[in-house]
């Protein structure tokens, strides 16, 4: 399915049901965050969430979502969720969401971006293509993940 138009914007409270459906379709059960934990995260400070909403539909439909949270103590931002609906994969949507997230991180002065998950071959290829490198022990909760240092503009 190729969308006519996707509106990449900040998450709004009215997106919550569509986000729940997106996660059910986009992520395997073992990889899905507990929805209550995700809602709590969305309400926390230093959180930015972007969604890709399908334009020109009566109800909110999400093709993708990305959630990140700043960690001021370590001058970094942690990407907690990247999800793209299977119908919208391989169309550049994940790249568009991550590019927006990197811009938000730079705009807030964070020096690096950490993605604590994503060791499946497709996820690894995605993070490598986006300029990330294996994070090793620096990843959140000491799990394997990905890291990208940001170049700050003077």
Strand order of the largest sheet: 1-2-3-4-5-7-6
Count of DSSP E strands?
Answer: 7
Strand content: 25-35%
Mean pLDDT: 83
CATH topology: Aminopeptidase
Low-pLDDT parts are: 139-143
Please state the structural category.
Answer: alpha+beta
**Can you name the CATH architecture?**
3-Layer(aba) Sandwich
Classify the helix fraction into a percent range: 25-40%
Oligomer: single chain
What overall geometry do the principal axes of the alpha carbons give? globular
CATH-defined superfamily: Gcn5-related N-acetyltransferase (GNAT)
What report would you give on this structure?
The protein has 154 residues and is an alpha+beta fold. The protein has a single domain (6-149), classed as Gcn5-related N-acetyltransferase (GNAT) (Aminopeptidase). It is 29% helix and 27% strand. The protein is built from 4 helices and 7 strands; from the N terminus they run E-H-H-E-E-E-H-E-H-E-E. The protein has helices spanning 16-26, 35-43, 93-107, 121-129; strands at 6-10, 47-54, 62-71, 76-84, 112-115, 133-134, 146-149. A 7-stranded mixed sheet has the order 1-2-3-4-5-7-6, sandwiched between helices. Strand 4, helix 3 and strand 5 form a beta-alpha-beta unit.
Descriptive labels:
single chain; 154 residues; alpha+beta; Aminopeptidase; 7-stranded mixed beta sheet; 29% helix; globular
Summarize the structure.
By secondary structure, this protein is α+β, with helices and mostly antiparallel strands. Helix content is 29%, strand content 27%.
